[in-house]
Amino acid sequence: MGRVLAIDYGTKRTGIAVTDPLRIIATPLETVASAGLLTFLVDYAKKETVDEFVVGMPKTLLNEDSAIAPLVRKFVETLKKTFPDKAVHLADERFTSSMAMRAMIDGGMKKKDRQQKGNVDKISATIILQSFLEAKR
């Protein structure tokens, strides 16, 4: 069984989280520059078996696409072309950044580390992935 990889896509940085091979635990993996995201994913998929992708879809409080949603949809199309044999799921990512910040505070992360936006991105991806896993159970 392959891993599930979650993506919290941003205009500058993208947070990535991944499951263990048994798909039990979601773990933060990396924050990469969005411009190099596909290269990172291709390289990662050469080293590890990835069966599915989960991409956070930014929505407003009214459940409408946010301003960045068209960029995410464009990325999803590119992802599907790059990995035609892999399932790509969209997941609501509302509130994940605030949930990530709360998790970092509750976990005792130092303020200096919380201010690094890359940490928020990869923890947000982890929250997206954990929610996806829980919904499938």
TrEMBL record:
State where it is primarily located.
cytoplasm
Keyword Nuclease part of the UniProt annotation: yes
Task: Keywords in alphabetical order, please.
Answer: Cytoplasm, Hydrolase, Nuclease, Ribosome biogenesis
Any one cellular-component term (Gene Ontology): cytosol
Q: Known EC number(s)? A: 3.1.-.-
Subcellular location field? Cytoplasm
Q: Which GO terms describe its molecular function?
A: hydrolase activity, acting on ester bonds; nuclease activity
Name of one Pfam family that matches: RuvX
User: Which GO terms of type biological process are on file?
Assistant: rRNA 5'-end processing
What general EC class does the enzyme of this chain belong to? hydrolase
Cross-referenced InterPro entries: RNaseH-like_sf (IPR012337), YqgF (IPR005227), YqgF/RNaseH-like_dom (IPR006641), YqgF/RNaseH-like_dom_sf (IPR037027)
Q: Which residues form the YqgF/RNase H-like domain?
A: 2-100
- Keyword Magnesium belongs to the record: no
Q: Tell me the PANTHER family matching this sequence.
A: POLYNUCLEOTIDYL TRANSFERASE, RIBONUCLEASE H-LIKE SUPERFAMILY PROTEIN
Which family, according to UniProt?
Belongs to the YqgF HJR family.
Role, per record: Could be a nuclease involved in processing of the 5'-end of pre-16S rRNA.
UniProt protein name: Putative pre-16S rRNA nuclease
User: What species was this sequence derived from?
Assistant: Chryseolinea soli
